[in-house]
Amino acid sequence: MIERITTAAEFRALRGEWEQLYCDCRSSNVFLTHAWLSAWTTHMAGSFAVLCRRPRPGAPLDAAAIFATDHHNRWCYVTEHSYLPGILCAPDGEAEALRAFLLYIFSHEPLVWRVVLHRCLSTADFHRMLDRALGALRFLWVPRGAVVPSRIIDTAVSFDDYLAQRPSKVRQEIRRKRRRIVQQIPGVTFAELPPTASSADALDIVAHVEEDSWKRSADTAIISHRRERDFYSAVFELGHNNNDNGDSGGPRGRLFSLTDDSGAIAYVLGVEYQRVFFALKTSYRADHARHAPGQVLFFDLIEHFCQSEQQLDAIELLGTDSRWKRELATRTREEHTFEIMRPGAIGLPYTVAQGYLRPKMREAAARDPHMARLWQLAKRIKSTALSISSTISSMTNSTSHGISKDRSNPR
Question: At CA 338, angle to CA 391 and CA 383, rounded to 5?
Answer without folding.
Answer: 30
